[in-house]
Structures
1.
Amino acid sequence: MRTRAEWVSLTHRPVPDEQWVTWPEPQRAPTLDPHEHATWFASVQDKLHEAEERYRTLVETLPLATYVGDGAPDSGPSWVSPQIEQITSYSPAEWTSNPELLGEVLHPEDKERVLAEMRGAEECGGSRELEYRMVRRDGTIVWVQDSGVIVIDGDQRHSRGFIIDITARREAELELERQNAQLRQLDNLKDEFVALVSHELRTPLTSIRGYLELMTEDTNLTKEQTRFIETIDRNTQRLQRVVGDLLFVAQVEAGKLMLENGDVDLNTLVAEAVQAAQPSAAAKSIVLTADLGQLPEIRGDRARLAQVLDNFISNAIKFTPGHGSVTLTTSALPGSVQVAICDTGMGIPPDELPLLFQRFFRAERATAGAIPGTGLGLAIAKAIITGHNGWIRVESEDGAGTTFRVTLPG
Ligand SMILES: Nc1ncnc2c1ncn2[C@@H]1O[C@H](COP(=O)(O)OP(=O)(O)OP(=O)(O)O)[C@@H](O)[C@H]1O
Ligand SMILES: [Mg+2]
């Protein structure tokens, strides 16, 4: 049976306009009579032109420029689709006739890198993806993404690929980077300002507390005056704590977390912290208990670890409605020790859990309920525990309670 595919070989590839479609001579003489042959040949030609038209329309309407070449950056493309002119301002003819053009239009800051990468790809073959700038005829800059593949066929190389104009995306990225840099600068300024103000507040606050202490020694004070002085003292202490927290955070931010390590019995620390918090638990009829397991001593900064426990306990009491319970449990794990602080409080909604350890973060319920706090306690706890090579986990059920687990190497 005569099948046309047996004796016709067609090559359909992008080549210069005048040779858009070529086909070699038939390999074998056709067995058709001349009339049949002419009709058949005309129909093949029609189909071929149709296919060519479809292909050309597709290639020329894509929002990118396609190219083919011999794979060497110095020789330029042998064919490039018309969109290249819109992207680079240089016509396909200019690209194919001037092998130096790429080197001439590459942005000076990208030139060396791009040509080196292209030469590297030419040696090894395979695909390559580059982003670089070109300088258009009018001096404007265009950012392009150049995705190509180099095919090595014996000692021949062919490159093909496409170029997309990514100027808008790169400009948006650069704008974002600029804004980020500006934000970082503002953030640093804010940190410096907070550290400075906190520092300035520390001395007068210490002085106020000193004078308050002297005043309480006066035995002639009325009950009302004593109550006033106690209120001033309580608020001054609160301010001192906030100032201390702000300075601590500023130190951590500056990478200056200082830990004074020694041998620490965690159970003693927990018992002391629980003891100290009993009055505030009792004020809300909260049952505050400690369940202490057998623990090895650990290395750590006693005062800083006590500060962490104080914050966890004060949080648990603050965020647990009256008549609830707060339980601290210590346990030894292989190579580590753990303290769990478990409350039956309001819980934390799942979407707020990832934000807990950020500076100044306060859950919506804390602010809505006007529960006092600065939002620094957990950020500080995280910095201290991380400084001990430990970690904190949190589990919470909205409305039912929260458990924080602090694990430290033991
Ligand atoms: N046990 C808890 N139950 C419910 N919410 C909690 C609990 N612990 C912390 N949170 C939430 O996490 C937020 C951050 O806690 P963090 O200790 O950092 O700040 P704070 O207690 O509000 O203020 P500060 O500790 O600086 O005085 C709290 O405001 C609260 O919304
Ligand atoms: Mg707190």
2.
Amino acid sequence: MTRKCINCKIEFPNSIDYFRNETAEACRQCGDYYLTTSQRQFLENHQIYVKQVFDVFGLQKKNYQQKMNAIDKIIGVGANPCRAFGHTLKMLSGHCPQCNTHHIEFTLRWFDNKFVYLAFSQKTQLIKIGVTDNIIKRELSLNDTNYGNINDWKILKSNLFKKAGQVEAKIQKELIRHRVYRKFIKDYKIVYSSEIFNCDLETANSILDKYIASNL
Ligand SMILES: [Zn+2]
Ligand SMILES: [Zn+2]
């Protein structure tokens, strides 16, 4: 048995996977249908398109994350009210975007079309994996800022990914046992690099190649 969504006019199976309940008019993919005026305003203020909204009403976090990931949705509507203020929007991560707007920037970064790069320092034989929208500028800034107390960074390889932040995180996770924390000064403060790895170039290269090949 199918039911037609009043908004997108697509017919979906008549189940809670596709509609929030028996009387729902719009499908879960048309989450924007369920936004209140003030929620709509909030999303607009933070440059989230209403097309990125999914109806998470009655779904457990794991369940909505899986569904949203599959279709590139980043924000849920109809969630359990947050403890602090009873907001009912949720980021893909499960955080309340209205209580803490930095979750929005983080999530948007995650979905940006950007370059994941591999930089190498000949002097120290160390590797950096990162994300940027400008390879040439980034190579300069790594050396200008003396990132990780290193100033001979060369970006050896880069690739444009649709979900650059996600790819970066996956590669860094694979390299985690090689991670080194290097102290350096940034904006007159001591900071520690978290994106530098002490592993051979071949290993890092082949991991990046693997993600390039899988074309995420
Ligand atoms: Zn629909
Ligand atoms: Zn909240």
